[in-house]
Amino acid sequence: MTAEDTAAPARRGRPGYDRQQVLEVAVRLFNEQGYDATSVSDLAGELGVTKSALYHHFDSKSAILEVALDDALSGLESALDDAVRSHSDASAQLRALVRGAVGVLTARQSRVTLLLRVRGNSDVEQSALRRRREFDQRVAAIVRAAQAEGMIRADIDAAVATRLIFGMINSLVEWYRPGGPVDPDELADDVLRATFDGLQA
Amino acid sequence: MTAEDTAAPARRGRPGYDRQQVLEVAVRLFNEQGYDATSVSDLAGELGVTKSALYHHFDSKSAILEVALDDALSGLESALDDAVRSHSDASAQLRALVRGAVGVLTARQSRVTLLLRVRGNSDVEQSALRRRREFDQRVAAIVRAAQAEGMIRADIDAAVATRLIFGMINSLVEWYRPGGPVDPDELADDVLRATFDGLQA
User: Where does the HTH tetR-type domain lie (chains A, B) (predicted)?
Assistant: First the structure.
């Protein structure tokens, strides 16, 4: 009897995990015990399926990582594209981006957590790090433009300010709990207040 | 070989690592490849010493972790104690703590990095998580007191504000480089400006 048999009857005598469910479980395991320390056998064991059933969905462990990281990065990149498209002044773009990024982090928490732990140990990880750097550079350019507009304080270097803002945003993955007492929209308001207006009364 | 031997060259034809140097290398390896994935053999190999030479300094891998985590936690707890002792109003305590915590993170970066990755997989890790929680609760109480003083905005929950401030501070371990272009004191100024005054011009 496999895990899936308990929820819904399997149709071909095989557990009925779809690609998305395999991805969810894999990302959870990667986050819990580390990507490098997790084998395809661990994953198959956790899902209660054979390794060949897993290979039906993904060619390799690395392919799972690639899809998960792409999901996190695409979310952040879309938030940035939307912010730029929706606003003409840089300060408003930055505010929209902060709100959008908090939304991505709370909605895709496990995949963003995985992204934030990537250290560049493989081509897939190197590629994800490159996309993160490009994202950071685009954001820093917006911060710089907002400084030129006189809307963001110029006494903090734009690259440092970008890192501080995203340091605060990214830290949400450590403690935010979906369905918990903190509402994601209110959290975005809090982050906007803290970063733009400051905590001083 | 004992810690006291360290300042002087090894006298018995063995590599002259002292306890502190073993700790440094171990923490670097733990951060690079994960604590659970690092064996005492890996560590001995990295140092070019035998396992028994290592056991002369530390009883176990877990003992190394315990010392490293205690170093990070003691630094943060001392920063908090100093801040409370040096200032009577909560808002000034909070500012002093932010400055002190940035100092600890930049000075003990590798050990704080290790602390931030602890997930509670052993008694040593559980104990470190408990101390982190106690620290967070003491900081949240100061934030709450500063709100009561009218110095910190009250429209953000004190526990959330504490997490946002320390989210920003803790993120420094990801990118700060000792001896790099960013001076630790200026960085503390930037973090204080960003968290208290906000980025808005």
Answer: 16-76
